[in-house]
Specification:
Thrombin, subunit H; 750 residues; alpha+beta; eleven-stranded antiparallel β-sheet; 47% helix; globular
Length: 750
């Protein structure tokens, strides 16, 4: 392990139309050529309109769908069939499953989502003897379906604008941190009131524009989610990290799950007495799929985008945060891969974490490349210069808006200066399960003494039980050598900070004259003495009052107690910054709308959104063009027999025999595997259904092309491409490879 890079890779962060020829007369031959030329031009014009006009930037909230002329873009159904606030529509088939999107595809609660979205559930059910990660999982009947532990399903039921109610809690005389706290408290109050009026539902206020617009969403919330069919890793993750964020793609990234409820239809914890959920709406699966140029759209729950942020935010991301995180995650992934190389039991513990960290790492590498390629910071700075000229040109605008960019700049300048210390504190908690668990125990004791409305989110009455369950579930993936290495590394980084960046608690704990020995001595004692990796012990102490926690001599709890003031100070600092940014950002969006004479689609925030466009290829570089459909033949061409390009023999045999069945594309004379399109997507859209112009399911969104990782900050029809597994491949694998024809019958596929 000593050969792996450690502190070196972070030092740079820490310290550093063709006109026709005009003729008076022409021959009959020339006249015929002209007619043919006009016809060709008309056809080309239609194709151009079809491929360019239908693509627009924007992940549209469901409240904004009626403002888009989707019929002119290519939609064949009525827009009201997508979203009808007074009836049943397509959005009733869309769910949030775990951190992804999924869709109901049968009347018995069958959910289609991504393989990587179901991965955590597969991992929790896997052992060295029953390795569902490698081999896949298939329930031949309902009784064989197994719990996807820790998974929940949310279904959007209603929404209402609560901007006025939220902002009524704010006073101009408030300190910035006080402003943030007032907004947070009002949001919780509204959520609590909504949940009291709607027992069994979940309410959540989402900020649509910082400091300006807020919407209260009401969700159906369900907890009994089960695995039905997950293909083997060699299909569901074909290409692995090598192909991640890459086109062309040949990954069968899909899985089936099922939602269960109490016999009376209400949400319930797992029970053998539960029955399949009966959705208001489920999607019709279209086994004919799509072809190049077809209109398509997605409904889903995209995570976060940041297109309305300033150049200061982008510079901080480009120069500070993303390089730090990408380098840290790359080292952690390599370390875990090395530990699990010769021990499958250890590898299973690491699989989900490796997958998550590697995904973020490569995403950030792509974003950094995109930021630099596009010169996005400089472009934003130029836009802001023009905006300031607009502000300065009018006395009233100057009075109201002149300071906003300076105010925002000051916040990010402070964040940049404090980044080394704050990054250590953030990733110290995120890197070590034992320290994170100890901090949870200590903070829970203090937070649970407060009124419910004043507690941090994990410790509120509605969240505390789930928070404890999440901490317990994490125990199954705990691996002491990994935890120890990660904790030692972060403590070393923290102990080497200098000047005002220093963390007092670490200065008191570790002798810097021989830091390595001091850390090793502490860790030897801590891991030998602590019992926080024992589920029963953890559950006993997590409910204790502060006096009980103070009396504990667990080394990790002592470390958490000593660092708690630093974390509280950081929390207060971030509330102050959030107050400043919220106030300035609201003004920033206001003046930008005045300047551009346009309103904006709010950034994605894990609320239900629509995006649309066409199946379309692209050119990622000079003299290179990618077509938008890959095939089963391409799977064979990539197959090497060695991970991550090892294909099941049954797939190889069926493909070579051209056993395509009814899932063949007549144009390609092959089974399409993945499809590319110019829709505007981001994280959280994983598992979103790709729908055709008739609202039928034709694919399952799972990724973006490498150039489109920049989507979080900017979208362009020239490079923003998203990827779905083609429904024909989903059905072909399910029927021909898994032999699960019953699932196709359940979905109504003939």
């Amino acid at each position: 392990m000593s050969s792996l890079p450690r502190l070196v890779f972070l030092r740079k962060i820490f310290y550093t139309a063709f006109p026709f020829p005009q003729q008076q007369r022409c021959s009959m031959k020339t006249a015929l050529f002209r007619i043919l030329f006009v016809i060709l031009a008309m056809v080309l014009a239609v194709l151009v309109v079809r491929n360019d006009v239908t693509a627009d930037e924007g992940m549209y909230p469901i409240s904004e769908i009626h403002k888009i002329n989707l019929k002119a873009k290519g939609l064949k159904i009525e827009p009201g069939e997508i979203y009808d606030p007074n009836g049943v529509s397509l959005i009733d088939a869309i769910v949030m499953v775990g951190g992804c999107t999924g869709s109901f595809v049968s009347p018995d609660g069958l959910i289609l989502t991504n393989h990587h979205c179901a991965f955590g559930g597969v991992q929790s059910a896997s052992t060295k003897e029953n390795d569902y990660i490698t081999d896949g999982f298939l329930a031949r009947n309902r009784q064989e379906e197994i719990p996807a532990r820790g998974y929940t399903v949310r279904i959007t039921e209603s929404y209402r604008d609560v901007s006025g109610e939220i902002l009524s809690a704010v006073r101009e005389t408030m300190e910035l941190a006080e402003r943030t706290k007032a907004i947070e408290k009002k949001m919780r109050d509204l959520e609590g009131d909504a949940e009291k009026q709607n027992p069994g539902k979940r309410a959540e206020v989402s900020e649509m524009f910082a400091g300006r617009n807020y919407v209260l969403f009401l969700y159906g919330f369900f907890r009994d989610v089960r695995l039905v069919y997950v293909p083997p890793r060699s299909i569901g993750e074909f290409g692995g990290e090598h192909d991640n964020w890459v086109w062309p793609r040949h990954t069968g990234d899909f899985s089936f799950m099922r939602l269960y409820v109490d016999p009376d239809g209400s949400p319930a914890e797992y029970s053998t007495d539960n029955i399949p959920y009966q959705p208001k709406k489920y999607l019709k699966v279209q086994p004919k799929g799509v072809e190049e140029g077809d209109f398509v759209f997605i409904l889903g729950y995209p995570g976060r985008t940041f297109r309305h942020r300033t150049s200061h935010y982008l510079a901080y991301e480009e120069n500070i945060r993303m390089p730090f995180v990408a380098d840290l995650f790359e080292w952690q992934v390599r370390y875990m891969e090395e530990l699990g190389k010769n021990d499958r039991a250890v590898a299973i513990k690491h699989d989900s974490r490796i997958k998550s960290l590697a995904n973020v790492m490569k995403n950030y590498r792509g974003k950094l490349k995109g930021l630099r390629r596009l010169g996005l910071v400089a472009r934003k700075q130029a836009e802001e210069k023009d905006l300031m000229a607009f502000i300065q040109s009018d006395p009233q605008r100057r009075s109201a808006y002149a300071s906003i960019l300076n105010d925002i700049s000051a916040v990010y300048a402070e964040m940049t200066h404090e980044a080394p210390r704050e990054m250590v504190l953030d990733y110290l908690l995120a890197s070590s399960q034992m320290f994170g668990r100890a901090y949870f125990v200590h903070e829970a004791a203090l937070e649970r003494q407060k009124p419910d409305a004043d507690r941090a989110n994990p410790y509120t009455e509605k969240n505390f039980e789930n928070s404890k369950k999440s901490a317990v579930r994490a125990l199954q993936d705990y691996h002491e050598p990994t935890d120890r290495a990660f904790l030692k590394e972060m403590l070393a980084w923290g102990s080497k900070l200098t000047g005002k960046q220093r963390i007092p608690a670490l200065d008191a704990l570790f002798d810097k004259t021989d830091l390595d020995q001091a850390l090793s001595t502490f860790l030897d004692k801590a891991y030998a003495k602590s019992k926080l990796d024992d589920e029963q012990f953890f559950l006993e102490v997590v409910g204790k009052e502060p006096k009980g926690i103070e009396a504990m001599d667990d080394p990790f709890v002592i470390l958490a107690r000593s660092l708690y003031p630093s974390y509280q100070e950081l929390r207060e600092t971030r509330q102050r910054r959030e107050g400043a940014l919220s106030k300035a950002s609201a003004l920033y969006v206001d003046i930008k709308e005045q300047f551009l004479k346009a309103s904006f689609v709010p950034d994605a925030n894990r609320t239900l959104r629509l995006t649309y466009g066409t199946v379309k290829g692209y050119s990622p570089g000079d003299a290179t063009f990618h077509t938008p459909l890959t095939t089963l033949t391409g799977v064979l061409e990539k197959t090497t027999g060695v991970e991550p390009f090892n294909t099941p023999q049954k797939v190889i045999d069926l493909a070579k025999a051209k056993e395509y069945g009814r899932f063949v594309s007549k144009r390609l004379n092959d089974v399409p595997v993945a499809v590319l399109y110019n829709l505007d997507t981001t994280g959280g859209n994983s598992g979103s259904p790709l729908l055709n112009a008739s609202g039928e399911l034709v694919g399952v969104n799972f990724d973006r092309a490498f150039e489109a990782t920049i989507n979080d900050y900017a979208w362009s029809d020239s490079y923003s491409r998203s990827i779905a597994v083609d429904i024909r491949y989903v059905l072909w694998v399910t029927e021909k490879v898994a032999g699960a024809s019953s699932l196709l019958t359940e979905m109504g596929v003939e």
